[in-house]
Amino acid sequence: MKLFQRFVPLFLFLTLLYQSSLGMAQEVSGKKMFRFSSFGTLALTRGGDDNLGFRGDLDRESLFDGDWSFVPDSVLGLQMDMQFGDRLGGAVQFVGKDRAEDSLKNSLEWAFLRYRLSPDWTIRAGRMGTDLFMLSDYRNVGFAYLWTRPPPEFYTPLAFANRDGVDAIWSSHLGKGTLRAKLAINTSQSTISVADTLIDLELKMSVGATISWETEHWQLKFSASENEFGQEGNYFPGTDPLADALLQASVIWPEATAISERLKINKPKIQYYAVGASYIANPWHIQSEISYFASDMEVYPPSVNGYFSVGYQVGSVTPFILGAFIEPRKPRKVLPESPVLTPAPIITEQLAFLRQTTQTVFDSTRIGQRSVSTGLRWDLRYNLALKAQWDHSWIDGYSGGLWDIRSVPDTNQEIDTFSVNLNFVFR
């Protein structure tokens, strides 16, 4: 009920805005300047256990205890495409879903203007989706892909779903397809949940480039970006109280000073590289992506992740299998033991608790996981699809960062997730 209380009023408001704007456009120009579309996913999901909470994205609410819920995967979106002549246009997209921090600003996924300089060149400015992977333009549109959700091992670690800035796009025909190149400069903010704590992340500057080639059946894409976090020299968001406690303890625990330094954003730049390919020609649906995430921050460790998916369509039903993984590129860092003060056992306990709390911070963001999924998609109509999926995940000890963690698991875990989705689009 909480989900629909948030989504429905926003959807009704935007529908009324659509009706009034459409009438105004027709009166002023005699042409259809505004085109509205909507999309959504009504998803029933069962996942998590008493310690690890399932979530499709880091900024979404979590599902614990193996319960069934509509909250984790359900989405409702409305998009308005605008065209003010042959050259100038734009788009606005609102997406309603349960988030770790709900706000109208966070629900605004797109809000940009587009200007076509020539048949080959286009520039855009405003808020746009993060264009570093193959589902960039329709990540929230469940109807556009086979699975009940994008593979978490690949899509969840990238915490910034959209960016504010500018980009320039060049396109040209190459062979039987279209070649596109894009250069983007932008910033972003995101609120995620780590160990039941809300953390505000700021991307001070991001410079990214993508190259793609697309035909009727094939799509190839390569992307690279350099990203700089804000607050260089400060402690990672949410860790200031912990760092202060470490500095105070350094009087009797000298190593605590060095440990507190590891909580700082001293090397704020991270690099992201990804390559993807898909082949869709009935009856086959094949898609794969792999990426490398480079970082020197202790609380944002580097990783390699990817997935491979195969579907085979039989009439209106497409069974599929999916394998996904994410592997950390550095070994787990174990903090030095806190001192044992025989004359003051209470202080010894406090230092041990401080050390364990700090170790938990590092372990909560470490990710090591593999999943195998199987399911099917049933296209009920041209704009309506029913999906069912089962995921089995192997989670390494001290590496459950994709999940909302109540306490860091110190052994390997296995968890099943079940989901049934009804996806729709209206234009």
Description of the structure:
By secondary structure, the protein is α+β, with helices and mostly antiparallel strands. It has helices at 2-29, 104-107, 152-155, 240-249, 255-261, 345-364, and strands at residues 34-47, 52-53, 67-69, 75-83, 88-96, 108-116, 121-129, 162-174, 177-194, 197-214, 218-229, 269-281, 284-294, 303-312, 317-328, 367-381, 384-400, 404-405, 413-426. It has a 16-stranded antiparallel barrel with strand order 1-4-5-6-7-8-9-10-11-12-13-14-15-16-17-19. Strand 10 (197-214) and strand 11 form a beta hairpin. It is globular, with a radius of gyration of 23 Å. The model is unreliable at 1-5 and 16-29 (pLDDT under 50).
Q: Please trace the helix and strand order, writing H or E for each element.
A: HEEEEEHEEHEEEEHHEEEEHEEEE
CATH topology-level fold name? Porin
Structural class: alpha+beta
Mind summarizing the main beta sheet?
16 strands, antiparallel, barrel
- By CATH, the superfamily comes out as Porin
Radius of gyration: 23 Å
Overall 3D shape: globular
- What is the terminal separation in angstroms? 27 Å
Summarize the structure.
With 427 residues, the protein is of the alpha+beta class. 17% of the residues lie in helices and 49% in strands.
List the helices and strands and how they pair.
Layout: H1 2-29, E1 34-47, E2 52-53, E3 67-69, E4 75-83, E5 88-96, H2 104-107, E6 108-116, E7 121-129, H3 152-155, E8 162-174, E9 177-194, E10 197-214, E11 218-229, H4 240-249, H5 255-261, E12 269-281, E13 284-294, E14 303-312, E15 317-328, H6 345-364, E16 367-381, E17 384-400, E18 404-405, E19 413-426
Antiparallel strand pairs: 1-3, 1-4, 1-19, 2-18, 4-5, 5-6, 6-7, 7-8, 8-9, 9-10, 10-11, 11-12, 12-13, 13-14, 14-15, 15-16, 16-17, 17-19
Helix pairs in contact: 4-5, 4-6
